Amino acid sequence: MENKTNIRISALATGALLAGAIGNNANATESFDLLGTGGELRSEILSNINPISFIDNRNMELKCGEGKCGEKSKAEEKGQSKADESKAGEQKCGKKASQADRDAARKEALEREEKKAQDKKEKESKAGEHKCGEGKCGN
Amino acid sequence: MEQTDVLKQNTSSIQGALARYCREGAAIDLPGITPGRLEHYRRLVLNVVHGILSEAYPIAARCLGSSKWGELVEQFFANHKCHNPQVWLMARELLDFIEETAYHEAKGLPFLPDLLLMEWTEIEVHSMPDNTTPPSTPCPDSQLLSTHLVFNPHYKLLHLSYPVHRIHLDDFEPKPGNFFLLVFREEKSGKVQFVSLSPYFATLLDTVLQSEGIDVLGAKNALVEAGIHAPKSIHEPQLVYFLKSLQDKQFIFGKVA
Asked: pLDDT of A55-77, one tens digit each?
């Protein structure tokens, strides 16, 4: 049986610009990069995205499951910034913590763990594989 | 049948005015409305549109910030006549709207169409109808260059002007160039994989995929003869490693059984 051969040069390569780019450009041959699944790439971009000049950072902060829309975040309610939050049980040097302080610190640590788990779950569901068109939307 | 054939003229015009208000937000006066309630219709409809587009384009939404993203969504909804009744396809129409109106140029966001295209392609590839391929067996490394390979049919090869897959990196610059992304759907899991390709690999792969009855070595030689690739632009071990990686990732299923 005769094998049929029909060579079609890539349309990507036919543009003069691109042909120039491939010709003697070392970078043109350099490599390939396995970027991962859509969910992985999206997670990486969303968690590392850098502010570009047009980005308003005040608009980028997401609440990640903290209360209803329009509700103040816990940190805002306490009147402290995120950077101000101290670790559980942290005290000033030399100050002895009372039982009440220790209980409060323990409770705060538990709450933080819960919140972290919730945030992680939220992040996974948002940054996962589910995009419009893959689920019920548009049925 | 025209809508006016089954509706009273008055009903039709009221419905039209209400729909226009929901899209554009310009104040209207309709008979029988309760003051202060009409705006909730627009709010609810816009919420649905906003939700669909933000879910389809989470990276673009984050990049633009809620204010600029909201402005884009509102402009799109007010000025673009969506053609498809399936709401998830509205996301594709946002890309059409941006290209038709050159919104990205007016707003100084030259890479926006590429960013939306990258995000949309994931949905498109994921939703592609199933295609069958000839039976195949794994191809040994030594035969990858000279065997007719069976490729995953669920893919798109994107030619981008901006490296939007690197938008989160410090060295990202919105300068135009030639960037290629291979986007394909894993056969078993249905997950969509992204692979960034150099122009060399992109043109070679595309030539193999577009041609019939050709192996990778044949495509490589054809590109050299056409003057597109330099004769010794790549070493064969590099090429084999590239093909092996694609076989590991299930873009290459193997050789014909």
From this structure: 444 444 444 444 444 444 444 44
Higher pLDDT, A86 or B78: B78
Domain-located, residue A5: no
Do the domain assignments include residue A40? no
- Residues B162 and B251 placed together within one structural domain of the fold: yes
> For position A72, what pLDDT does the model report?
45
Residues B79/B23, Cβ–Cβ less than 8 Å: no
**Record: contact B170-A50, CB cut-off 8 A:** yes
* Residue at A15 is within a domain: no
ipTM of the complex: 0.88
Give the best residue of A131, A136, A139 to mutate against chain B (max B CB count within 10 A): A131
Q: Which domain holds residue B190?
A: 136-256
How many domains does chain A divide into?
A: 1
Where is A33: in which H helix or E strand?
strand A32-37
Residue A66 φ/ψ, nearest 5 degrees = -85, 95
Q: Which residues in chain A have their CB less than 8 angstroms from residue B219's CB?
A: 7
pLDDT at A122 over 80: no
More confident residue, A122 or A4: A4
Q: pLDDT at residue A136 above 60?
A: no
Is A37 within 8 Å of B193 when comparing Cβ atoms?
yes
> What three-state secondary structure class fits B174?
coil
Which residues 56-95 on chain A approach chain B with CB closer than 8 angstroms? 56-60
Structure confidence by residue, pLDDT tens digits, B202-228:
999 999 999 988 999 999 999 888 888
DSSP three-state, residue B190:
coil
The C-alpha atoms of residue A135 and residue B127 are separated, in whole angstroms, by: 10
Interchain contact, A13 vs B228, CB within 8 Å: yes
Question: Each residue of B43-55: pLDDT tens digit?
Answer: 999 999 999 999 9
Distance from C-alpha of B182 to C-alpha of B193, rounded to nearest angstrom: 8
Contact of B245 with chain A, judged by CB distance below 8 Å, is answered with yes
Q: Which of residues 173-212 of B touch A (CB under 8 A)?
A: 174, 177-178, 180-181, 186, 191-204, 206-207, 210-212
Task: Please list the alpha-helical segments (H only) found in chain B.
Answer: 3-6, 9-24, 38-56, 58-79, 90-101, 103-106, 112-126, 199-210, 216-225, 236-248
Does pLDDT of B173 surpass 90? no
